[in-house]
Amino acid sequence: MKKKSDSAKWSETETQAWIGLVKAQQHLIDKVEEELKKAGYPQLSWYDVLWELESSKDGSLRLNDIGKKVILDKYNVTRLVQRLENEGLVSRSQCPVDGRGIFACITDKGRKLRRRMWQVYEKVVRENFLCKYNKKELHEFRNFIERIQASRLSDSA
Amino acid sequence: MKKKSDSAKWSETETQAWIGLVKAQQHLIDKVEEELKKAGYPQLSWYDVLWELESSKDGSLRLNDIGKKVILDKYNVTRLVQRLENEGLVSRSQCPVDGRGIFACITDKGRKLRRRMWQVYEKVVRENFLCKYNKKELHEFRNFIERIQASRLSDSA
DNA sequence: CTATAGTAGTTGCATTTGCAACTACTATAG
DNA sequence: CTATAGTAGTTGCAAATGCAACTACTATAG
Q: What are phi and psi of B104, to 5 degrees?
């Protein structure tokens, strides 16, 4: 009557679901990156930050909050925002209420770039992912995915 | 009667499915990496290569084939295998039939490490992903994922 | 056989990331 | 107010990755 951690045995379905998930997502992301580069645009991570800024009130966020939204360590946020600033895509400013805080604010140039990158991004995702499912299926798919998220959110709570 | 690329508008479900997929997978991978590190083991990419070797005939593969299996550019394969060799986890040898080819062959030490890493890896995936679904759901999930893969395979054909 | 194109793998250089230590500020305890 | 702990952001150094140029070999064309 043993039952130690021979949990090590996975069924075919389990393996395929996990490996499939990893490989499929990697492939999709690689494809997006590839197309962005081909079009002469910067990395997806730049897009992510620009997008978060654009969807925020005032087009600005504190570096710390950017880090949470795009899941990036703080030192990487510092540097990414630095690069964005060098390209004139965002501007930085001190937080008036918290002396430690730094705001990044998207510029017009940043907004324009994001919009152009979106053309490429959205096309890849539509043609390689969204188009594979009809409305009902996509809904189910989203529900499946949400279950993983659920545990993530409660983790950080 | 216009209909240019204002494909740019996504439904809520589309957005959530895509963003959810990306974030969920990123979270899962981060979690695996975190636990591996916490346990004092190397990166997931090391595991991937060791696993591919171990599941191959003779425990060996050509660098080129490793690259295809784990989706890594050739220069990264060279270096990753170099690191694995430095740690005594694989050994390298010339391919007898193709003078350009190099084989990497997993060592006993490599097999042992992979097995130990698997303990950690499998636990994270089970507790954060697999456990969210029953048999039937997992099956459906896999089928959803496979559709993305389908296009990937035909790409490289 | 010779020339030419293609493939496998490596390497130098620049960029990006991870880690740990650091500064500067805020929050809490006394 | 002072001390102490915690948070936001930065930076130096090491490791990893991307890119392009390179070597060495194989495959094809003539």
A: -110, 135
Q: Is B104 in contact with B60 (CB distance < 8 Å)?
A: yes
Which residue, chain included where needed, has tokens 């983790």? A155
Q: What is the pLDDT of residues B5-42, one digit of tens each?
A: 555 689 999 999 999 999 999 999 999 999 999 999 99
8 Å CB contact of B16 and A132: no
Region for A59 from its dihedrals, namely left if φ exceeds 0, alpha if ψ lies in -120 to 50, beta otherwise:
left
**Cβ–Cβ contact B22 with A under 8 A:** yes
Instruction: Look up the domain containing B93 and give its range.
Output: 39-155
Instruction: Round to whole Å and give the CA distance between B54 and B48.
Output: 10
Separation between the CA of A52 and the C1’ of C24 (whole angstroms):
27
Residue whose CA lies closest to nucleotide D24 C1': B100
For A49-106, the pLDDT digits (tens) are: 999 999 998 999 999 999 999 999 999 999 999 999 999 999 999 999 999 999 999 9
Give how many domains chain A has, as a whole number.
Answer: 1
CA A130 to chain B, closest CA, distance in angstroms equals 7
State whether the beta carbon of A109 lies below 7 angstroms from any atom of strand D: no
The CATH number given to whatever domain includes residue A119 is 1.10.10.10
